[in-house]
Amino acid sequence: MSEKKTRSHKAQKVLERFGKKLNRQVAGSLVACVHCGNCTESCHYVLANPDDPTYAPAYKADKIRKLFKRHHDWTGRVFPWWVKAGSLYTDEELEDLKDTVFGKCTNCRRCTLNCPMGVDLATFNRMARGLLVSVGVMPEGVAVVSKDQWEIGNQMGVLKEDYVETLEWMGEELQDELDDPTAGIPIDKADCDVMYTINPREAKYDPRSISDAAKIFHFAGEKWMMPSEGWDMTNFGLFSGDDDLGGAVARRLFEKAIELRAKKVVISECGHGYRSTRCEGPNWAKFDMPVEMESSVITMIRYIKEGRIKVDKTRNTKSVTFHDSCNNARSCGLTEEPRELLRLVTTDFREMHPNRAENYCCTGGGGAMSMSEYTTRRLKSGSVKAKQLEDTGAEVVVTSCHNYVDGLTDLIRHYKLDMEVTQLVNLVANALVIEEKVALPVKEAVAPEPAREKALPLAGRKILVADDEPDQVTFLSAVFEDNGAVVLSAANADEALAIARREKPDLLTLDLSMPGRDVGEAFEALRNDPELESLKVCVVTGRPELRRLIYDRSVRAPEGYLDKPVSEETLLLTARKILATSHETS
Ligand code: SF4
Ligand code: SF4
């Protein structure tokens, strides 16, 4: 006599939604696997964990396939034991599925490439993520980022005023640098030939990539602009499997381009952003996008070929290799253009092996950087990529993807590789040949050398670094001190509070997970202290899911936020911006 199992509410919802989400492509992949094992060695998780069979693509796929067999395939209803059909009953089983679909697969699609039957695990892995998200079962970072993209309009929660201010700031710096008032970043200008869209990481952590792009557009004589809304070309819907979010984000961008009558949307360097906006977005949004869309990599090549900009490759003499983004290379076929561009702007390009569509994931894809609970796994499986990087012997790894800048930076730090990460836009901007202006007569009254020497950008500033990791304190302190600041440090929240009250620093960098007193409480106490009214705070954390400790409080929000690992350049730019220091480096 068989005992009828009860099913949790969430499990019931997941199964109901599963039926609605099935389409021919997913069903085809779910039935096609013959368990030949060809895909096993193609997965970086397997290569880094050879003794753990739960990382094998077919094993992971079977966790979803069994549901299809049980509920949507007659073989599973008649011979469930034979075709390994199974169902979901408990919330614990949902958690177990979450661990697989979010924590053991980056949806990189390398296994798909090596499957003779064309099984596309990433497609139904994404679908399974979406089913779990629909009942609230997901890593906390996925919930936080999705919420930001739904509510604030971009996945890093950059407020409109901060974004616009950053563009204006970058525009003014460019005018100063080029001594040209016509340079700058036009915002919301109608009838332009190009609407430039970016990854929010650029506005938040890497504004130099925006000013480098602005410089290229300026010298190309492009009629371009950036929109004040609908500018986020990334789309967390691709990672969370939430098609509704995917459609809403894509639609915002499409509608803005139409409203401003842009003739073309140029998408800055981001693998998942390019795929989401150009390839998947119109489907998710059910939107017939009439405006052409193009990767900035193609735009930059075009400018060079059309003679609109001149470049000198001898400005970039460090040896470089290229990391293909999984989305660009495997899902969008964007493999040759970045290489063509690299050869035009660098002198020593060397391939990584394997490369192009066969390249290994950097382990930062699929939204993995937002899922801190899987960081240990991510870094371990990154040993495959680290070996690839090391074998090139290159000094610089170039990637056309902001996610991968973070993913690769993390790996380089973890595996102690002697390498930098950069993007094509930075190399092109650096290689730009800028025609000299007609020389003006030299003014007589040139100040003597010492007087013209410019102050370091943080000179006269006092900065308190609160972090319990000695390496972090050393790094942050060194960057601030090298730029003229006086640095104090604290290893816990109580100490930070006491030093802040005693020393009255201008800026506090605040780690969210320190031992002892709750960091959120300490932050609130700081904010409520009238003597610390002028203290600026920048959160620097490796635990983005702890943001609510700070941001859910009814006190003034921090002036800045950075995710670890943070680069020297980003740290300095952010500190300068918060402290509103001027660009004074020569
Ligand atoms: S290669 Fe394809 S058919 Fe073979 S086990 Fe992997 S997914 Fe299944
Ligand atoms: S999609 Fe990538 S991470 Fe996922 S199983 Fe396949 S190879 Fe592994």
Write up this protein.
There is one protein chain. A five-stranded parallel beta sheet has the order 9-8-10-11-12, sandwiched between helices. Strands 2-1-3-4 form a four-stranded parallel beta sheet. The protein has a three-stranded parallel beta sheet with strand order 5-6-7. The chain contains 28 helices and twelve strands. Helices cover 48% and strands 8% of the residues. Mean pLDDT is 92; it is low at 442-453 and 582-586. Helix 4 (57-72) packs across helix 8, helix 12 (207-219) packs across helix 22 (424-431) and helix 16 packs across helix 18. The chain is an alpha/beta fold. The radius of gyration is 25 Å and the shape is globular. It binds iron/sulfur cluster (2 copies). The site of one iron/sulfur cluster has 12 residues, from helix 4.
How are the SSEs ordered, and which strands pair?
Blueprint: H1 9-21, H2 24-32, H3 44-48, H4 57-72, H5 74-78, H6 91-103, H7 110-113, H8 121-134, H9 140-151, H10 160-178, E1 194-197, H11 200-204, H12 207-219, E2 224-225, H13 237-240, H14 243-259, E3 264-267, H15 271-285, E4 292-295, H16 296-305, E5 320-323, H17 326-331, H18 336-345, H19 375-381, H20 383-392, E6 396-399, H21 402-414, E7 420-422, H22 424-431, H23 449-452, E8 462-466, H24 470-482, E9 486-490, H25 493-503, E10 507-510, H26 519-527, E11 536-541, H27 548-551, E12 560-563, H28 568-579
Parallel strand pairs: 1-2, 1-3, 3-4, 5-6, 6-7, 8-9, 8-10, 10-11, 11-12
Bound molecules: iron/sulfur cluster (2 copies).
Q: Can you give me a brief rundown of this structure?
A:
The chain is α/β, with parallel strands linked by helices and 586 residues long.
